[in-house]
Write a structure and sequence with these properties.
The protein is mainly alpha-helical. The chain has a single domain, classed as Four Helix Bundle (Hemerythrin (Met), subunit A), CATH 1.20.120. It contains eight helices and no strands. Helix 5 packs antiparallel against helix 6. It starts with a helix and ends with a helix.
């Protein structure tokens, strides 16, 4: 996947910024008991929370942002930020809730949105393709990496991004 985005100039950096942890500064560091880590890992692996409603809410946010961009009510950096937020959330949460394919698709979208200067029709077509792919994963309830179908989906989205860069000679 990284080949598609190698050499692309990032216009913005969509990263999680961790504020200073005042409590940790006061208490200091020291590590976490191994049994606590094992229990936390077990909770993540055995997590039974239904991610679909959460993901659908995030897809709806992405859909609203797309509609706002297409209507012209959102432009420039605000438009990209409105699309980045739900994509970042799905990237972060998908794997935790047993939908790593959603995390991967969202990661491709985040990487793409970090590199675009504007929200022209081609950019929006690629964003919509990602939204449709995520909807397909959710409606088909594809957990795990999606196997062959998941690979084909990821490859198609990466190819769309690569064609965009090639057409722009970026």
């Amino acid at each position: 996947m990284t080949d598609t985005f190698d050499g692309q100039k990032k216009v913005r950096k969509a990263e999680l910024i961790a504020p200073p942890n005042r409590l940790k500064e006061k208490v200091g560091s020291g590590g976490i008991d191994e049994t606590v880590l094992i229990k936390a890992q077990e909770l993540l692996e055995n997590n039974s929370i239904d991610f679909k409603p959460i993901a659908q809410m995030l897809v709806d946010l992405l859909h609203e942002a797309i509609a706002d961009v297409k209507s012209g009510s959102l432009k420039g950096e605000q438009a990209v930020e409105a699309m980045l937020y739900p994509a970042m959330q799905m990237k972060a949460q998908g794997s935790m809730f047993h939908f790593p394919l959603i995390s991967e698709i969202s990661n491709i979208l985040v990487n793409f949105l970090e590199t675009v200067d504007n929200t022209d029709k081609d950019v929006m077509d690629i964003v919509v393709a990602h939204k449709l792919a995520i909807n397909a994963v959710l409606s088909s309830h594809i957990k795990g990496d999606g196997g062959k179908v998941g690979r084909e989906l990821r490859d198609a989205l990466l190819d769309a991004c690569a064609r965009y860069y090639k057409s722009r000679k970026v």
